[in-house]
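Supplementary Methods S3. Input chains for the assembly prediction are listed below.
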Amino acid sequence: GENVEQHPSTLSVQEGDSAVIKCTYSDSASNYFPWYKQELGKRPQLIIDIRSNVGEKKDQRIAVTLNKTAKHFSLHITETQPEDSAVYFCAAPNDYKLSFGAGTTVTVRA
Amino acid sequence: DVKVTQSSRYLVKRTGEKVFLECVQDMDHENMFWYRQDPGLGLRLIYFSYDVKMKEKGDIPEGYSVSREKKERFSLILESASTNQTSMYLCASSFGTGGYWNQPQHFGDGTRLSIL
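Predicted structure tokens for the full assembly:
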């Protein structure tokens, strides 16, 4: 939705390199920021989320950072692997509904 | 593990038909959602429900209605299908604690609907 902007729309990285996806949101009251991964032909699945009382959260090779002042949050994938190839969606609450970004197609080149 | 089951993976209907998409979840979740997914537009919320018989409009409710007669089941209805409703439809559910906008959502596999 237009309340959450996501960039880039496509991202191609060499295996082993890092990938970063950034989202900006408009509702300053937002306090929950999930990231979903959707592999080809499959359902979106939550991979990590962060709440506004923390600035960063890590889970193995993925991390999310949050800057509430600037109203943006980012997904970082380190040491990318072929199985990281997918579409990634960010989301943020807006007017008491979860709004999703348009998605980033990540391709990991072997 | 949470299971959200959508009745059909693929569905082909004709313009003007009344179409029903069904979704069932097995985790006793209070909240249920219907989204449509189109390339370059992400997931757009059609309707959601935070309790039995309760429904709220999302961002794109025009041409759709919903029904939630039982906690585990949430139906999306296309009153008179049109070609611009050809899309992937995703159902999701979440716990009610802390607000329906504030909890992880669990998605079904989706229904790819084609309106001819």
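The mean pLDDT of chain A is 94. Chain A touches chain B through 23 residues (CB under 8 Å).
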